[in-house]
Specification:
Chain lengths: ~575, ~280
């Protein structure tokens, strides 16, 4: 059993409400869920969809074909009608769409009329639709009724009851009129599962890491982090500030970090372009900062709400001058949670900027898990505070040390002065011009730290066949679709995935010699959602390995499993 | 015991006779009078001759990027409202490169003391016009003279309802000291524009030029009347008023932020256990 549902409609019609509601119900029932979204850069109108999949096995990507299409507009039918599986069904409101079909795959459900009759208001058409989907699948309505209570309790009993009636009406209608529906939904095999999106995982990871400062300027796909942390601000004591621009955002975060907080900013490529000088400032002043960088297709404004892995090259060299940086690129919400934590730890331990490089697809998608293991979360306070700071003799912010790491004092906590400077500086932090000090400082903040930082990077994850004939290589958000492609092809091919989520500096070869591994695989395919193969270029520059086969996609949409498999088949004949 | 010696630093790399010396000396005197120890406040600066000030005294220092002192200062204040923060900046740094941050800081009314060394010229980059250069100012890069109108920081401050808008003159050290002290005690953004002769690159707005024009605001001048403050802010040219042009009692930004109600976030203990409860929201 592996069902996919797509809810299509105009922006503002509430497709997200339906999608999120269904996802939550499936997860609470004990199914595994994966969802992703596709939307235009507009507040009303256009065509958007929300696609979710549920099954009794772990899911990591979206499929190409739908079992149920909830069409809230006619465009959903014209665009996605052909995506229907042989037994798939379209549900739609014939009156609202001014459209009807005799095709037995089409089931007209008067969402709006039922909403008005049972709930009292057309607004509840979405609740009717959600109930109808559950009815078609023959699932229990109870979870939806509970969810409605949780969502609407603040609006009063009347609203809760009206929505419940609307849900019941949709459910009943689908049960009574959905004859010939042959979805065989197996009972859920698990307990209720945690359902989490990439953005939320980053936000949670920040909270779990003791982040108490977030400044950002709104920009898709990072805005969700701003909203999430703001919603938790009071509970967790997190200062969340909407900056006047991205330049201010990163400088505010650096100010807060200097003052003694774990600070973060978030943006997308265009906003990050403005942050580049601030990044360099973090490098020079050795001020810890985490930057959540959500990629979307460029150049310039590009496709604002869509996805791409197009900014890796930019991040590798952004900021004037030479300084250490770390780039972590999670492939799932789970990785996003743990890597956000790692980002904060590394940023503070080495007093460097650390990027959490994600994309719209990862940010908007949702995964289910049994849970997140908080024991895997680290928290070390690397700052010098209070008495411990006061006890230091001759404190110097940039004291030369063997590790290159100088003591990070919290200003005001002791009589010592914390002096930082964007100019080249001496150990105390004051401006210098002499070459000897310059050399010592470059040695300290760059060369001594680099090998230590490299040693922190985890090796890429090898999944599937250990001695494969074909290996799919990728990074970041393609993790799930590559994994599912490997699973699907494993019966007929010795195939594996090599996925990098800690991508700069590239991990050492000592624990796992991935260069030697790649050399011995007959066909290594580098898969990237960009036009020029930015990761394959990085791998070649750092290891000398050159991919003979690549799959690139740059239309702003993620791969579906079938689409990627099709591309891989094209390369298999070359071995 | 805090004395002037407490704040003595290395010899400044400013031109002999620069107006910045008087500002630096007055700054030290104010810190002594306020009994602030060097570690008890932070000076944030950007780039320019004024931005070097913290290096020539003793204090916590964040000497960042050109134009970006205000966002850094805002970040420090929002992290630790117990830490007094002073920005030392110039007309190019603050009114030019950092313009948007100035607008935002005034709107927020963040409790930062903004000391702008205004010499109406770019000193560090050797003599280009600044946002406050008068129309017609000639420079190597503008041989025909400046066409744009100068920015009026006083009028801007009044227009945006900035909590404290004042002007002083580097060579009138008693007045400057009073203005710095008033700015320090103001709870909100305190803009103090300090007329500062540049003896090397500005041959027009000299000590003599300022002395002939500057006058102290009349004793009966009411800085809380916004409309008359605006009229006063527009005075420039033959007569230049110095003193507190405008002030109001808008509460500082920090006082509105619910997260800061308990005080400095820097002193807040981190409780990782809390996350367990939040995780339940995702089931």
């Amino acid at each position: 059993m592996d069902y996919s549902i797509k809810i299509g409609g105009e922006a503002g019609q509430g497709i997200q409400t339906i999608g999120e509601g269904l996802g939550r119900i499936f997860a609470r029932s004990g199914y595994h869920v994966f969802s992703h979204q596709d939307y235009e850069s507009r507040v009303r109108g256009g065509h958007n969809f929300y696609q979710l999949r549920f099954a009794n096995h772990p899911l990591a990507a979206s499929r190409q074909n739908m079992d149920i299409l909830v069409a809230l507009d006619r465009e959903s039918i014209t665009r996605h009608g052909q995506e229907l599986t042989p037994k798939g069904r379209v549900i739609y409101d014939a009156a609202a769409l001014d459209f009807s079909s005799d095709d037995p795959a089409f089931l007209a459900i008067p969402f709006e009329k039922l909403a008005q009759e049972q709930g009292g208001s057309k607004i509840m058409a979405n609740t009717v639709a959600t109930g109808a989907v559950l009815g078609m699948l023959g699932l229990d309505l109870d979870l939806l009724l509970k969810l409605i209570a949780a969502l609407f309790h603040k609006k009063g009993d009347a609203v809760v009851e009206a929505n419940r009636n609307a849900a019941r009406a949709g459910y009943q209608f689908a049960r009574e009129h959905g004859d010939g529906v042959s979805f065989e939904v197996a009972a859920a095999e698990g307990q209720q599962r945690l359902l989490i999106g990439g953005i939320e995982a980053i936000g949670l990871g920040a909270l779990a890491s003791g982040c108490t400062f977030y400044a950002a300027y709104p920009m898709t796909p990072s805005t969700g982090i701003l909203n999430f942390l703001a919603s938790k601000g009071k509970e967790y004591g997190v200062m969340v500030e909407q900056a006047e621009d991205e330049i201010a955002a990163i400088n505010m975060a650096l100010g807060a970090s200097y003052a003694g907080l774990r600070a973060m900013t978030g943006t997308s490529g265009g906003g990050f372009a403005l942050m580049a000088e601030g990044l360099s400032l973090a490098g020079m002043t050795e001020t810890p900062i985490v930057i959540a960088m959500g990629q979307r297709p460029g150049p310039a404004t590009g496709l604002p709400t869509r996805t791409e892995q197009g900014d890796l090259g930019f991040l590798l060299t952004a900021g004037h001058g030479e300084f250490p940086r770390v780039i972590l690129a999670p492939g799932t919400a789970e990785q996003a949670f743990y890597l956000t934590n790692k980002a904060f730890e590394l940023a503070e331990k080495y007093q460097i900027p650390v990027f959490l490089l994600f994309d719209t697809y990862l940010g908007d998608s949702q995964w289910t898990y049994d849970g997140l293991d908080l024991k895997q979360v680290s928290y070390h306070d690397y700052r010098l505070r209070g008495e411990a700071f006061g006890e230091q003799q001759d404190y110097k912010r940039y004291a030369l040390t063997d590790s290159g790491i100088s003591p990070l004092g919290v200003p005001g906590d002791a009589a010592h002065l914390v002096v930082v400077d964007s100019d080249e500086h001496d150990e105390e932090g004051h401006i210098i011009e002499d070459n000897a000090t310059r050399n010592q400082m470059v040695e300290k903040r760059l060369f001594r730290k680099l090998p230590l930082i490299k040693g922190e990077m985890a090796p890429p994850k090898l999944y599937g066949e250990q001695e494969p004939r074909v290996v799919l290589v990728g990074w970041g958000s393609t993790y799930g679709v590559m994994k599912e492609a490997v699973d699907a092809l494993a019966e007929s091919e010795k195939i594996a995935m090599l996925h990098f989520s800690e991508i700069f500096p590239l991990p050492e070869m000592a624990p796992f010699d991935y260069r030697a591994f790649l050399d011995q695989v007959p066909l290594a395919v580098c898969i990237e959602l960009n036009a020029t193969g930015q990761f394959s270029r990085l791998l070649r520059a750092e290891t000398g390995f050159e991919f003979k086969a690549v799959i690139h996609k740059y239309d702003g949409r993620p791969f579906t499993v079938e689409e990627l498999i099709g591309e891989i088949h094209g390369h298999l004949k070359d071995i | 015991m805090v004395t002037l010696k407490t704040f003595s630093g290395p010899q400044p790399a400013w031109c002999p006779g620069c107006g910045n010396f008087a500002i630096l000396n007055t700054f030290k005197e104010v810190m002594v009078e306020l009994k602030l120890e060097p570690h008890q406040f932070t000076v944030v600066s950007g780039i320019g001759q004024a931005a070097k000030l913290p290096h020539y005294t003793k204090c916590n220092t964040f000497n960042g990027l050109h134009g970006r002192a205000l966002p850094v200062a805002t970040g420090i204040r929002l992290a630790n409202p117990a830490m007094p923060v002073i920005v030392t900046t110039g007309d190019g740094d603050c009114y030019g490169e950092g313009g948007n941050h100035l607008l935002a800081a005034m709107r927020r009314n963040i409790n930062v003391k903004l000391f702008v060394h205004n010499n109406q010229i770019y000193g560090l980059t050797k003599g280009q016009p600044s946002p406050t250069s008068d129309e017609g100012t000639r420079a190597k890069n503008v041989p025909g003279g400046v066409i744009s109108q100068p920015l009026n920081p006083m009028a801007l401050g009044v227009a945006l309802d900035c909590g404290f808008v004042a002007r002083s003159f580097a060579a009138d050290m008693e007045h400057l000291k009073e203005m710095m002290k008033e700015a320090m005690s103001h709870q909100g953004l305190a803009l103090l524009d300090i007329l500062q002769p540049c003896i090397t690159f500005n041959k027009v707005n000299t000590y003599k030029w300022y002395r002939e024009r500057v006058y102290h605001l009349e004793p009966d001048y009411d800085p809380e009347d916004r409309l008359s403050a605006f009229a006063k802010a527009l005075e420039w040219g033959e007569r230049i008023p110095i003193g507190v042009i405008y002030r109001n009692s808008r509460p500082a930004y920090e006082e509105h932020v619910p997260v800061l109600a308990g005080g400095s976030l820097v002193q807040q203990a981190f409780d990782p256990a809390k996350i367990e409860a939040t995780l339940q929201d995702f089931y």
